[in-house]
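Thread title: Can someone regenerate the structure for this chain?

I was given the following input by a collaborator and told the matching structure tokens would be attached. They weren't. Posting the sequence so someone can regenerate them.
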Amino acid sequence: MNTLNALIDDLEKKPIKEIAHLISEGDRLALNEFHRRTLFLMANGTRVVFREYVHSLVEMALDSWRWGRLGLNAVERAGDLLLDRFFNIPDAVTDEEDYDKNLDGAGGGTDCRNYFRAFLTGLEDHIQADGILGDIQVEEFAANRLQFFVKRHFYYCLYESLRESNPFLSRYMWKVNGSRFRLWFPKSFGGKKRGEWLKTHIGTPDSSNPLERERIQALIDREIVMPKWVSFLTVEDWTGSVPSSSTSRGCAESEDKTCSTIREFIADEKAESIALQRRAIRALGPERLRRLVRAILDNLNSHEKSDAQIAQEYGLSPATYSRFAGRDWDKDNGKDATQSMSVPDLFLNIAHVIATKHPEFATVARQAGVWKRISEVASLPIQPRMRMNANGQ
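Best answer:
Regenerated them for you:
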């Protein structure tokens, strides 16, 4: 017991760099010490332990439009994956069957030693490149680099969480030169094609690099079309251009005008049906309404502005904007929106246009995997504020 106490006392005096090195060698006492230390700086100036910092990253992601719209489960799963990357030292395995079972277990068999080794490698490179000297300077720099390192891995974990929840993907264990890499591929890209593709595009992986798996997965994501469920709110993400033969009778300038995108069609349709809109929306006038709709649909793709910012630009109250085009109703892919009938006017119109105006729009929606969601919204017992419904037709 005295020896153990002496070891713990000694660990408390060691700098981050040494603690990380001990963890990379499998020292569980050093890992415990790491998680006791308040190494992570919050915005209010306080320092917190690793677990509290991960919780703050989860909260930050949930508050952001880009990640918050994925839903609570996906973001919290990313937090769990991140915790596992820095807590788990797996038990020794004796054969390949045990190894594969470990990979299928909680956390996917991650080994925190790999991540601490990667942190140390990057730390040494930056210390040498920046010419940092002195124990105090190195310790401060190490703390800053560690926080950056953890935050970067949180984003890796967000993407991993999305892959886990994607019904169109399946896991593939690539075994090469004694190393194993757990990767995700589209289910449609199966069988021997996976191994052949990896051999052609990756060649011999760098098994000494703890982040090699992330590099390979990023290449797969970039080079192979990864199917996914898409909310029909991100209309421009999946429509692109409809066939040029599509003649849009609803376009404002001419009965024969060809609208190149659904966005243009929707914007023109709303401007033409301004008399059917709510009073505050009518007050904008047709041209300003057309610009508002284009701004909203452009922003669904770019995510540059919040709903509040767009509402302010066009002089609309938060409540008016929410009823017209608020995004929160479909935050969890609209699972409850059809029951509460809380679909904003603009998105109800989009569903009706795609479902009823042009076969080309419906065809693209089916190919993108969003037709079911669109047809659900279009079938709601709510009358859309658009010209096609002015006479009950």
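Residues 46 and 374 are 47 Å apart (CA to CA).
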